[in-house]
Amino acid sequence: PGSVSAAVQEYLRHLGLQDFPCGLGSWVRVWGGTAVGHGTGLPLPRLSPRLQNKSCLNACRSTQAEPAGLEEAVPPGEETPEALLELLRDQHSPWALPPDCSPQDRLLREVAVLAPELLRGSRVFQVVKSLRILDKGVEEVDEGLLRFQHLEELILSANHISRVTSAHLPRTLKVLELCCNAVGDLQDLCARPPPELQHLGLGYNRLCGPSQEKHLTVDFWPNLVSLDLSFNSLTDLLRLVSQLSTLQNLRILVLQGNPLALTPTYRGFLVDSLPKLSILDDIHIWPDERQQFHGLARQPELIRSEARVVVSVGEMKGLPDPKAFQQLKVGSEGPVITYSYCVTYEF
């Protein structure tokens, strides 16, 4: 529990790749506990929905070769591949996947009907190229991920991951999404990161500078095209830009929600400092905007590291009336109670 491997097993169980209407062999109807349409008369256990896997019958059938050029016709009562696929695709079918499932989920189930031998045992790990595990309570990215030798996309958003060991990530990864987790340090992730990674999503985590900026250079991410660092606690804009400028393939950058985004020259400085950037904070950078901010990168003195905030408290309720304390005379033997209050502002 709490590991990616456990979540993967639950994911595969949910897909039901070995259960009707998927699984090995075709399926035949069962009436009264006997398989119909094969001429074997073998008694078989009744299954809900009154269907039985034909593969168990094949083991008892003769291995006599079929005449050349002849194909075995579908016996009466046996489900055709087309009928089984219809059960998967019809949104009103009890075996249909939810509408928000990924295209790969649908593809895997259809493969389990048409060519189930491709998904037997560990073979399923060779087929999967995209893995989406969202909001499943995952805390650990364990080495079980290495079984996916051709994995290109890994989405682990909305979990409880605080650290990612790069040695547990398949080297074939091109997309790694860790949005809405508890990642506060990139050192383990950058020890041996996937060399072909093109998108890294770290939005809504706990990254805070200045120690993290050093991990965002071309030495770790030579092919990075898209980077999401939104809604963290990054504060040093100058240092961050100096590191990001080494990413020659970077075209999409999201930094909104960080304290450094509050500086007055934030967008203009980034636009001029990263000339190959195409999209910043989900807003396209047009040529006229780039021309407008031309030269701003050479004026770092315009970037202020401090800001002044004035907070006015309009009304406070539930506090004792100060006038009651003013009525006490100096030297009075009556008890005096002092109240202290602390107001904290979090930005």
Would you kindly provide a written description of the structure presented here, covering whatever features stand out?
This protein is an alpha/beta fold and 347 residues long. The strands form 2 sheets. An 8-stranded mixed beta sheet has the order 5-6-7-8-9-10-11-12, covered by helices on one side. Strands 1, 2, 3 and 4 form a 4-stranded antiparallel beta sheet that branches. Strand 1 (27-31) and strand 2 form a beta hairpin. It contains 9 helices and 12 strands. The protein is 20% helix and 10% strand. Helix 3 runs antiparallel to helix 4 (103-114). This is LRC43 protein. Keywords: Leucine-rich repeat, Repeat. It comes from Mohoua ochrocephala.
Q: Short description, anyone?
A:
The protein is an alpha/beta fold and 347 residues long. It has 9 helices and 12 strands. The two termini are 35 Å apart.
